[in-house]
Design goal:
This protein is α/β, with parallel strands linked by helices and 364 residues long. It contains 13 helices and eight strands. It is 30% helix and 10% strand.
Length: 364
């Protein structure tokens, strides 16, 4: 792949929802989600196995052995990005309460899980983020922080990078392109330069540097109705450009397919491209990606403590089909989560299309 091909995948569609890196502002207290998630029959038609959308339904899947607990600590964020699948922003106030936070280390220990994957919003804005990270690390559990990089410059977060390094947290950081204009169009004015500053501060602490144990992965999302390019070749281009222009090192580049939900789906619908994108995902489906999709070894927890098969199902309100439905039930019914059927829909083709997609990047 040439650099020009890599740039093509950084292009921003002419019609995108507005995004900004607005200052954090208080907002009205949200209405908590019902403790009883909607049944599948109540889900929006966009998420169902729609015969008009797919020539055949998504294949049935069962969970294997649970390894990772992915926790969404809340939807508050210092950014409001056009591709965000959780509709996060500075005005969001949904945050996980202490009663649920306290259960997380117990679940990790009882189920002998390997990894705690923290996401949001900006998970670092949760007041108990650091104490939760430390408890998990004290248990010997790997912690992943899904970081937007600009959070490292927010008031009160000046020592965040040092905290992450001291705790040995793996950082997975969003950087949808290596060009300033394209990043700022998708993520907000000034975001690129602040992201570069964040990466440089992480590098200074050893993150992403050769022979360092501190992992720093970057995340690429396409900006339009297209699949990501080959992960390995795009990583080579990222590595070359970021080192040449900014002296930045990183561990890996992860390419993640945009799911046709929330803001991205709204953008595609406004452009008249939503159905075509669903068709693209379906046509590019590869059966060999099914064994590696993230939901087979992960369970997702929302800010109210309810369980979902993945972060995307969480945003669509599609609950787990069977077994424990809350963190508390997971703690008390730990043996019932493995080998359970996974709730799937037409959006799941986003994880199996092309080279595949997961929170850990391409699958093949």
């Amino acid at each position: 792949m040439s650099t020009s091909i890599g740039l093509k995948h950084c292009l921003i569609p002419a019609l995108m929802l507005n995004s900004s890196s607005a200052a954090l502002q208080p907002s009205p207290k949200p209405t908590p989600r019902s403790p009883h998630p909607l049944p599948l029959t109540s889900i929006s038609p966009l998420t169902e196995q729609d015969p008009k959308r797919s020539a055949k339904p998504f294949p049935a899947l069962n969970r294997g052995e649970l390894e990772t607990l992915q926790v969404n600590l809340g939807y508050r964020c210092n950014q409001s990005c056009s591709h965000c699948h959780v509709n996060a922003g500075p005005w969001r106030t949904e945050m996980m309460e202490e009663e649920h936070i306290k259960l997380i280390p117990k679940v990790l220990q009882t189920l002998k899980l390997n990894c705690l994957d923290l996401t949001g919003g900006a998970p670092e804005l949760h007041p108990q983020f650091r104490s939760l990270v430390q408890e998990a690390r004290d248990l010997g559990v790997q912690v992943i922080d899904r970081c937007n990089l600009t959070i490292l410059q927010e008031p009160g977060q000046e020592d965040l990078a040092a905290f992450l390094a001291d705790a040995g947290v793996k950082v997975v950081a969003s950087l949808p392109c290596f060009e300033e204009e394209r990043v700022d169009t998708q993520r907000g004015s000034g975001v690129f330069q602040r992201s570069i500053a964040g990466l440089q501060s992480l590098n200074a602490l050893g993150y992403g540097m050769p022979n360092s144990n501190l992992e720093l992965d970057l995340v690429f999302n396409p900006s339009g109705a297209q699949l990501p390019p080959a992960q390995g070749e795009l990583e080579r281009i990222y590595r070359e450009k970021l080192l040449e222009n900014h002296g930045i090192h990183f561990s890996r580049l992860l390419t993640i397919t945009n799911m046709p939900i929330q803001r991205f789906a709204q953008t595609l619908k406004a452009r008249g491209e939503l159905e075509a994108y669903y068709a693209l995902l379906h046509q590019a489906h590869r059966d060999n990606n099914l064994s590696a999709v993230m939901c087979r070894h992960l369970i997702s927890v929302d800010w109210t403590g309810h369980l979902f098969d993945c972060d995307f199902n969480q945003q669509l309100g599609i609950p787990v089909r069977s077994g424990p439905r809350t963190l508390n039930e997971l703690l008390n019914q730990s043996g019932t989560v493995n080998n359970q059927p996974i709730a799937v829909g037409a959006h799941c083709f986003g994880c199996t299309a092309g080279g595949g997609s997961s929170c850990g990047g391409a699958l093949s």
